[in-house]
Specification:
The longest helix has 20 residues. It contains 15 helices and five strands.
């Protein structure tokens, strides 16, 4: 068909690529790669800019500050009555003023925007508000897909490493507790896709298609106008490994020790104790008694894993 004047004007907008996670889908590794590409000047060659909060006001590694902006779009109240985590009341105005200026500068210079934060996957994110901020850009949202049954185990593992009280339960017991699946389902790819798809064009990167590594897939297939970044990703396809899973057998045993003997200092010997426990568990092999998932839960996990 013939392009209208509005179509011509729309096509001249810079693009904004927003990677929205979810958690435990190589998001931290991707963010570290994006920062590496930015510092090497590769993103600049593709006319992409990525937001980086000023170090003086927000100290710490750049990749760790990525969630701050996304968390400011969280409509769910935090403990202090404002957005939670990295966007409390005292920081919100500074963060949003920075983001507004960043987007304005990018639009005025016709620069494309690349942004990644798993915090966008939260159920409370105000997608309509985000759309208003990005009105001067053609927005492309990218969400990663990891099978639910694989993803939820990794999520639980991260909770255990972070010391979450709910993760003191064995995985199967935690999984079959009433409400767990409902709470987790809204954080998974299908729910995130649905929340963003009503406002933006959304593409899905399937992490289980192993023919092409994740980094080249992201830069070569999910992002338009990123030829230099695509070539760099092909040359160096390996992303840094972040937040690797660890054995939870020793961690649960350690949790029991710290709960029962919290007045004693075991931290210094934690590593040696954990290694000894792992060695003994590995030597026991299949003789360790295990609780298996119910047939109903297995079917539920499979159903949730084929939504995309």
């Amino acid at each position: 068909g013939v392009k209208s004047y509005d179509d011509e004007q729309e096509s001249k907008k810079p693009i904004a690529v927003i990677h929205v996670g979810p958690h435990k889908t190589s998001t931290t590794s991707l963010q570290q790669s994006i920062l590496k590409f930015s510092k090497k000047g590769v993103l600049t060659l593709d006319n992409f800019v990525t937001p980086m909060l000023p170090k003086k006001q927000f100290p710490g590694p750049d990749w760790k500050k990525k969630p701050y902006i996304a968390q400011c779009f969280d409509s769910e109240p935090g403990i202090d009555g404002g957005p939670p985590n990295g966007c409390p009341k005292k920081n919100r105005d500074r963060i949003m003023n920075y983001f507004t200026t960043f987007l304005s500068n990018a639009s005025n210079s016709s620069s494309n925007v690349l942004m990644s934060s798993e915090a966008f996957a939260k159920e409370g994110i105000n997608v309509t508000m985000l759309k208003d901020y990005l009105q001067d850009f053609d927005v492309e949202v990218v969400v990663f897909y990891r099978r639910f049954y694989d993803w939820i185990l990794s999520f639980y593992n991260q909770m255990a490493k972070n010391g979450a009280k709910s993760a003191n339960q064995p995985f199967v017991e935690w999984l079959e507790t009433n409400g767990t699946i409902d709470r987790m389902e809204v954080l998974h790819t299908a729910a995130v896709y649905q929340r963003f798809n009503t406002h933006f064009e959304v593409s899905v990167l399937n992490m289980h298609r192993n023919a092409i590594p994740i980094l080249p897939t992201f830069f070569c297939q999910n992002i338009k106008r990123a030829n230099h970044s695509c070539h760099e990703a092909i040359r160096n396809p390996t992303m840094p490994r972040s937040n690797p899973s660890t054995s939870l057998d020793s961690r649960h045993f350690w949790n029991e020790i710290t709960i029962r003997y919290s007045s004693m200092n075991f931290k210094r010997k934690h590593r040696d104790i954990a290694q000894n426990i792992n060695d003994k568990f590995n030597a026991m092999g299949d003789s360790i008694p295990r609780r298996c998932l119910s047939e109903g839960m297995k079917r539920n996990l499979l159903d949730l894993s084929i939504q995309i």
